[in-house]
Amino acid sequence: MAARTRRADIGVVDLARELGISTATVSRALNGSPAVRPELAERVRQHAQARGYVANRLARALSANTSRAFVGFVIPYVDTPAYSAVAAECARLFSEDGPDGTQMILTITENDPERELRQLRELLASRVAGLVISPSTHVLEDTKRLLASVPVVELHRACGIDAPGVFSDDEQAMAESVLHLAALGHRSIGYLGTPVALSNGATRLRGMRRGAVLAGLDPDGLPTCLIEPTTDNGQRGVLELLERPDPPTALLIAGGALSIGAARAVRASGRRLPEDLSLVVYGDPSWFALSEPPLTTVAVPYPELAKRAARLLLDRLDERPGASGGGQHLIKPELVIAGSTGPPGGSSRR
After folding, report:
1. Higher-pLDDT residue of 57, 156
2. How many separate domains does the chain show?
3. What is the pLDDT confidence band of residue 101, given thresholds at 50, 70 and 90?
Protein backbone atom coordinates (compact mmCIF):
# COMPACT_ATOMS: atom_id res chain seq x y z
CA MET A 1 0.00 0.00 0.00
CA ALA A 2 1.41 3.40 -0.95
CA ALA A 3 2.59 5.60 1.88
CA ARG A 4 0.07 8.21 2.94
CA THR A 5 0.85 11.68 1.58
CA ARG A 6 2.48 13.85 4.25
CA ARG A 7 0.42 16.78 5.53
CA ALA A 8 3.05 19.28 4.36
CA ASP A 9 2.82 17.85 0.81
CA ILE A 10 -0.94 17.94 0.41
CA GLY A 11 -1.98 19.79 -2.73
CA VAL A 12 -5.09 20.50 -4.77
CA VAL A 13 -4.50 17.38 -6.88
CA ASP A 14 -4.48 15.18 -3.76
CA LEU A 15 -7.66 16.73 -2.42
CA ALA A 16 -9.41 16.28 -5.79
CA ARG A 17 -8.40 12.62 -6.00
CA GLU A 18 -9.52 11.88 -2.42
CA LEU A 19 -12.87 13.62 -2.91
CA GLY A 20 -13.45 12.20 -6.40
CA ILE A 21 -13.96 15.60 -8.01
CA SER A 22 -11.95 17.76 -10.43
CA THR A 23 -9.02 19.94 -9.40
CA ALA A 24 -10.83 22.93 -10.88
CA THR A 25 -13.78 22.35 -8.55
CA VAL A 26 -11.46 22.07 -5.54
CA SER A 27 -9.69 25.31 -6.49
CA ARG A 28 -12.97 27.15 -6.99
CA ALA A 29 -14.30 25.89 -3.65
CA LEU A 30 -11.19 26.92 -1.75
CA ASN A 31 -11.24 30.36 -3.38
CA GLY A 32 -14.89 30.95 -2.51
CA SER A 33 -16.28 30.83 -6.05
CA PRO A 34 -20.10 31.03 -6.21
CA ALA A 35 -19.97 28.51 -9.08
CA VAL A 36 -19.58 25.69 -6.54
CA ARG A 37 -22.67 24.48 -4.64
CA PRO A 38 -22.45 25.65 -0.99
CA GLU A 39 -22.71 22.11 0.43
CA LEU A 40 -19.91 20.87 -1.85
CA ALA A 41 -17.73 23.89 -1.11
CA GLU A 42 -18.14 23.25 2.62
CA ARG A 43 -17.23 19.57 2.19
CA VAL A 44 -14.06 20.56 0.28
CA ARG A 45 -13.05 23.10 2.92
CA GLN A 46 -13.59 20.66 5.78
CA HIS A 47 -11.62 17.94 4.03
CA ALA A 48 -8.78 20.39 3.20
CA GLN A 49 -8.61 21.48 6.82
CA ALA A 50 -8.60 17.89 8.09
CA ARG A 51 -5.78 16.97 5.70
CA GLY A 52 -3.67 20.01 6.74
CA TYR A 53 -3.79 21.65 3.32
CA VAL A 54 -2.16 25.09 3.14
CA ALA A 55 -2.61 27.08 -0.07
CA ASN A 56 0.59 28.02 -1.83
CA ARG A 57 -0.11 31.71 -2.28
CA LEU A 58 3.20 32.42 -3.99
CA ALA A 59 2.58 29.75 -6.63
CA ARG A 60 -0.90 31.13 -7.28
CA ALA A 61 0.54 34.64 -7.59
CA LEU A 62 3.27 33.55 -9.98
CA SER A 63 0.78 31.72 -12.18
CA ALA A 64 -1.14 34.99 -12.42
CA ASN A 65 2.14 36.78 -13.32
CA THR A 66 1.93 39.09 -10.32
CA SER A 67 2.06 38.98 -6.54
CA ARG A 68 0.18 41.55 -4.51
CA ALA A 69 0.45 39.06 -1.65
CA PHE A 70 4.23 39.51 -1.17
CA VAL A 71 6.53 42.49 -0.66
CA GLY A 72 10.26 42.49 -0.07
CA PHE A 73 12.00 44.08 2.91
CA VAL A 74 15.76 44.48 2.39
CA ILE A 75 17.96 45.60 5.29
CA PRO A 76 21.69 45.43 6.07
CA TYR A 77 21.32 44.02 9.59
CA VAL A 78 18.58 42.57 11.76
CA ASP A 79 20.42 42.40 15.11
CA THR A 80 20.23 46.15 15.74
CA PRO A 81 17.40 48.04 17.48
CA ALA A 82 16.64 50.22 14.46
CA TYR A 83 16.19 47.43 11.94
CA SER A 84 14.66 44.78 14.19
CA ALA A 85 12.02 47.21 15.48
CA VAL A 86 11.12 48.54 12.04
CA ALA A 87 11.11 45.08 10.43
CA ALA A 88 8.71 43.71 13.04
CA GLU A 89 6.37 46.69 12.74
CA CYS A 90 6.38 46.70 8.93
CA ALA A 91 5.61 42.96 8.83
CA ARG A 92 2.62 43.56 11.10
CA LEU A 93 1.36 46.53 9.10
CA PHE A 94 1.63 44.78 5.73
CA SER A 95 -0.23 41.76 7.10
CA GLU A 96 -3.01 43.86 8.64
CA ASP A 97 -3.38 46.63 6.05
CA GLY A 98 -2.23 45.04 2.80
CA PRO A 99 -4.56 43.29 0.34
CA ASP A 100 -5.36 39.71 1.33
CA GLY A 101 -2.99 39.91 4.31
CA THR A 102 0.16 40.86 2.43
CA GLN A 103 3.22 38.92 3.59
CA MET A 104 6.67 40.45 3.91
CA ILE A 105 9.78 38.60 2.71
CA LEU A 106 12.76 39.68 4.81
CA THR A 107 16.29 39.60 3.37
CA ILE A 108 19.47 40.64 5.17
CA THR A 109 22.37 41.92 3.07
CA GLU A 110 24.96 42.18 5.88
CA ASN A 111 25.83 45.50 4.21
CA ASP A 112 27.45 43.58 1.34
CA PRO A 113 26.60 45.15 -2.06
CA GLU A 114 27.16 41.90 -4.00
CA ARG A 115 24.91 39.98 -1.64
CA GLU A 116 22.37 42.79 -1.87
CA LEU A 117 22.30 42.47 -5.67
CA ARG A 118 21.85 38.68 -5.54
CA GLN A 119 19.01 38.95 -3.05
CA LEU A 120 17.29 41.64 -5.05
CA ARG A 121 17.43 39.49 -8.18
CA GLU A 122 15.87 36.60 -6.26
CA LEU A 123 13.09 38.81 -4.91
CA LEU A 124 12.27 40.19 -8.35
CA ALA A 125 12.35 36.67 -9.84
CA SER A 126 9.68 35.80 -7.26
CA ARG A 127 7.67 38.77 -8.59
CA VAL A 128 7.23 40.62 -5.33
CA ALA A 129 4.88 43.56 -5.75
CA GLY A 130 7.28 46.11 -4.27
CA LEU A 131 10.16 46.69 -1.90
CA VAL A 132 11.15 48.59 1.21
CA ILE A 133 14.94 48.83 1.23
CA SER A 134 17.66 50.23 3.45
CA PRO A 135 20.55 50.17 0.98
CA SER A 136 24.09 48.99 1.68
CA THR A 137 26.90 51.49 2.06
CA HIS A 138 28.14 51.11 -1.53
CA VAL A 139 25.17 50.24 -3.74
CA LEU A 140 26.08 48.77 -7.16
CA GLU A 141 24.81 50.40 -10.34
CA ASP A 142 23.18 47.09 -11.34
CA THR A 143 21.22 47.23 -8.09
CA LYS A 144 20.00 50.75 -8.84
CA ARG A 145 18.85 49.67 -12.29
CA LEU A 146 16.90 46.76 -10.81
CA LEU A 147 15.31 49.01 -8.20
CA ALA A 148 13.99 51.21 -11.01
CA SER A 149 11.89 48.28 -12.26
CA VAL A 150 9.67 47.88 -9.18
CA PRO A 151 7.84 50.18 -6.72
CA VAL A 152 10.36 51.03 -3.98
CA VAL A 153 10.43 52.95 -0.71
CA GLU A 154 13.81 53.72 0.87
CA LEU A 155 14.11 53.53 4.65
CA HIS A 156 16.81 55.02 6.95
CA ARG A 157 19.28 55.32 4.05
CA ALA A 158 19.13 56.70 0.50
CA CYS A 159 21.16 55.61 -2.52
CA GLY A 160 20.21 58.25 -5.08
CA ILE A 161 17.33 56.53 -6.87
CA ASP A 162 14.04 58.18 -7.86
CA ALA A 163 11.90 56.76 -5.07
CA PRO A 164 10.21 58.11 -1.96
CA GLY A 165 12.07 57.59 1.30
CA VAL A 166 11.36 57.68 5.02
CA PHE A 167 14.17 58.98 7.21
CA SER A 168 14.85 60.24 10.68
CA ASP A 169 15.51 64.00 10.68
CA ASP A 170 18.89 63.48 12.30
CA GLU A 171 20.64 66.71 11.30
CA GLN A 172 18.61 68.84 13.67
CA ALA A 173 18.79 66.23 16.44
CA MET A 174 22.58 66.07 16.25
CA ALA A 175 22.84 69.86 16.36
CA GLU A 176 20.58 70.00 19.42
CA SER A 177 22.68 67.33 21.13
CA VAL A 178 25.90 69.30 20.67
CA LEU A 179 24.19 72.48 21.90
CA HIS A 180 22.94 70.60 24.98
CA LEU A 181 26.44 69.39 25.84
CA ALA A 182 27.99 72.79 25.14
CA ALA A 183 25.41 74.49 27.40
CA LEU A 184 26.58 72.21 30.22
CA GLY A 185 30.12 73.52 29.71
CA HIS A 186 31.69 70.85 27.49
CA ARG A 187 34.21 72.14 24.97
CA SER A 188 35.72 68.79 23.94
CA ILE A 189 32.89 66.64 22.57
CA GLY A 190 33.84 63.34 20.95
CA TYR A 191 31.72 62.22 18.02
CA LEU A 192 31.26 58.57 17.00
CA GLY A 193 29.28 58.21 13.78
CA THR A 194 28.91 56.23 10.59
CA PRO A 195 30.77 56.80 7.30
CA VAL A 196 29.62 59.67 5.10
CA ALA A 197 29.14 57.17 2.25
CA LEU A 198 25.91 56.37 4.11
CA SER A 199 23.32 59.08 3.54
CA ASN A 200 22.35 59.12 7.21
CA GLY A 201 26.02 59.15 8.23
CA ALA A 202 26.55 62.31 6.20
CA THR A 203 23.38 63.89 7.61
CA ARG A 204 24.33 63.20 11.24
CA LEU A 205 27.89 64.46 10.80
CA ARG A 206 26.54 67.61 9.16
CA GLY A 207 24.24 68.15 12.15
CA MET A 208 27.08 67.67 14.63
CA ARG A 209 29.22 70.21 12.80
CA ARG A 210 26.37 72.72 12.57
CA GLY A 211 25.73 72.37 16.30
CA ALA A 212 29.42 72.93 17.02
CA VAL A 213 29.46 76.15 14.99
CA LEU A 214 26.31 77.41 16.73
CA ALA A 215 27.93 76.62 20.11
CA GLY A 216 31.08 78.55 19.20
CA LEU A 217 33.20 75.40 18.83
CA ASP A 218 35.55 74.46 16.03
CA PRO A 219 34.00 71.34 14.41
CA ASP A 220 37.38 70.37 12.93
CA GLY A 221 38.85 70.32 16.43
CA LEU A 222 36.33 67.88 17.91
CA PRO A 223 37.56 64.27 18.26
CA THR A 224 35.73 62.31 15.57
CA CYS A 225 35.58 58.62 14.64
CA LEU A 226 33.53 57.39 11.67
CA ILE A 227 33.01 53.64 11.55
CA GLU A 228 30.62 51.01 10.15
CA PRO A 229 27.51 50.80 12.40
CA THR A 230 27.92 47.61 14.44
CA THR A 231 27.89 47.03 18.18
CA ASP A 232 31.50 45.83 18.22
CA ASN A 233 32.60 48.89 16.28
CA GLY A 234 30.77 51.10 18.76
CA GLN A 235 32.77 49.59 21.58
CA ARG A 236 36.06 49.90 19.71
CA GLY A 237 35.35 53.44 18.56
CA VAL A 238 34.61 54.74 22.06
CA LEU A 239 37.71 53.10 23.51
CA GLU A 240 39.74 54.75 20.74
CA LEU A 241 38.31 58.17 21.62
CA LEU A 242 38.80 57.68 25.36
CA GLU A 243 42.39 56.50 24.96
CA ARG A 244 43.47 59.76 23.34
CA PRO A 245 46.11 61.76 25.26
CA ASP A 246 43.49 64.47 25.88
CA PRO A 247 40.21 62.50 25.94
CA PRO A 248 36.88 64.28 25.41
CA THR A 249 34.71 65.16 28.39
CA ALA A 250 31.54 64.20 26.51
CA LEU A 251 30.59 61.74 23.79
CA LEU A 252 27.85 61.97 21.15
CA ILE A 253 27.06 58.59 19.57
CA ALA A 254 25.26 58.76 16.21
CA GLY A 255 23.86 55.28 15.62
CA GLY A 256 21.75 52.69 17.42
CA ALA A 257 24.14 49.74 17.22
CA LEU A 258 27.08 52.05 17.89
CA SER A 259 25.30 53.31 21.01
CA ILE A 260 24.94 49.85 22.52
CA GLY A 261 28.64 49.19 21.99
CA ALA A 262 29.47 52.65 23.32
CA ALA A 263 27.56 52.06 26.56
CA ARG A 264 29.48 48.81 27.06
CA ALA A 265 32.80 50.54 26.43
CA VAL A 266 32.07 53.33 28.90
CA ARG A 267 31.18 50.79 31.56
CA ALA A 268 34.34 48.80 30.82
CA SER A 269 36.45 51.95 31.10
CA GLY A 270 35.33 52.49 34.67
CA ARG A 271 34.21 56.05 33.99
CA ARG A 272 31.22 57.30 35.93
CA LEU A 273 28.30 59.00 34.19
CA PRO A 274 28.06 61.97 34.27
CA GLU A 275 30.81 62.70 36.86
CA ASP A 276 33.70 61.59 34.64
CA LEU A 277 32.04 61.64 31.24
CA SER A 278 28.78 62.80 29.67
CA LEU A 279 27.17 60.50 27.13
CA VAL A 280 24.45 61.07 24.51
CA VAL A 281 23.31 57.96 22.62
CA TYR A 282 21.02 57.37 19.65
CA GLY A 283 18.03 55.09 19.18
CA ASP A 284 15.27 53.67 21.35
CA PRO A 285 14.98 55.36 24.78
CA SER A 286 13.22 52.33 26.26
CA TRP A 287 16.51 50.41 25.97
CA PHE A 288 18.68 53.14 27.41
CA ALA A 289 16.32 53.99 30.28
CA LEU A 290 17.38 50.64 31.80
CA SER A 291 20.92 51.92 32.32
CA GLU A 292 22.07 53.41 35.60
CA PRO A 293 21.95 56.32 35.25
CA PRO A 294 19.46 56.43 32.36
CA LEU A 295 21.12 57.65 29.18
CA THR A 296 20.36 60.92 27.43
CA THR A 297 19.04 59.75 24.07
CA VAL A 298 18.27 61.00 20.59
CA ALA A 299 14.99 59.08 20.60
CA VAL A 300 13.95 57.84 17.17
CA PRO A 301 10.23 57.02 16.66
CA TYR A 302 10.79 53.67 14.94
CA PRO A 303 7.08 52.67 14.87
CA GLU A 304 6.28 55.91 13.02
CA LEU A 305 9.08 55.28 10.50
CA ALA A 306 7.70 51.79 9.87
CA LYS A 307 4.12 53.01 9.56
CA ARG A 308 5.08 55.71 7.05
CA ALA A 309 7.22 53.36 4.94
CA ALA A 310 4.58 50.62 4.81
CA ARG A 311 1.84 53.10 3.95
CA LEU A 312 3.92 54.70 1.21
CA LEU A 313 4.58 51.36 -0.45
CA LEU A 314 0.94 50.26 -0.24
CA ASP A 315 -0.10 53.61 -1.74
CA ARG A 316 2.37 53.15 -4.59
CA LEU A 317 1.01 49.67 -5.27
CA ASP A 318 -2.52 51.07 -5.32
CA GLU A 319 -1.34 53.92 -7.60
CA ARG A 320 -2.96 56.47 -5.37
CA PRO A 321 -2.50 60.18 -6.24
CA GLY A 322 0.87 61.48 -5.13
CA ALA A 323 2.17 58.00 -4.42
CA SER A 324 4.70 57.82 -7.27
CA GLY A 325 8.04 59.57 -7.66
CA GLY A 326 10.62 60.64 -5.13
CA GLY A 327 10.55 62.82 -2.07
CA GLN A 328 11.85 62.61 1.47
CA HIS A 329 9.56 62.04 4.41
CA LEU A 330 11.34 63.15 7.58
CA ILE A 331 10.32 61.98 11.05
CA LYS A 332 11.72 64.16 13.83
CA PRO A 333 13.55 62.49 16.73
CA GLU A 334 13.44 63.95 20.22
CA LEU A 335 16.39 64.67 22.50
CA VAL A 336 15.39 62.99 25.79
CA ILE A 337 17.64 64.39 28.52
CA ALA A 338 18.43 61.96 31.34
CA GLY A 339 21.11 61.34 33.93
CA SER A 340 24.09 60.56 31.70
CA THR A 341 24.83 64.20 30.86
CA GLY A 342 26.11 66.87 33.25
CA PRO A 343 28.79 69.54 33.57
CA PRO A 344 32.42 68.53 32.97
CA GLY A 345 34.03 66.98 36.04
CA GLY A 346 30.69 66.89 37.85
CA SER A 347 30.98 70.56 38.86
CA SER A 348 27.79 72.52 39.52
CA ARG A 349 25.75 69.37 39.41
CA ARG A 350 22.15 69.80 38.40
Report:
1. 156
2. 3
3. low
Predicted confidence (pLDDT) per residue in 31-44, tens digit: 777 778 888 988 99
Phi then psi for residue 18, to 5 deg, are -70, -30
pLDDT for res 221: 94
What dihedral angle (degrees, nearest 10) is formed by the CA atoms of 338, 78, 96, 333?
A: 30
* pTM (2 d.p.): 0.75
129 with 151: CB under 8 angstroms?
yes
Please report, as a single letter, which amino acid is at residue 117: L
Mention every residue, 6+ apart, whose C-beta is less than 8 A from residue 180.
280, 296, 335, 337, 341
Among the listed residues 115, 83, 77, the one whose alpha carbon sits nearest the alpha carbon of residue 230: 77
175 & 295 share domain: yes
Q: How many CB atoms lie within 10 A of CB 63?
A: 9
Whether residue 106 is found in the same domain as residue 163: yes
CA 274, 279, 285, 289 dihedral sign is negative
CATH number, residue 23: 1.10.260.40
For residue 77, give its domain range.
70-168+303-331
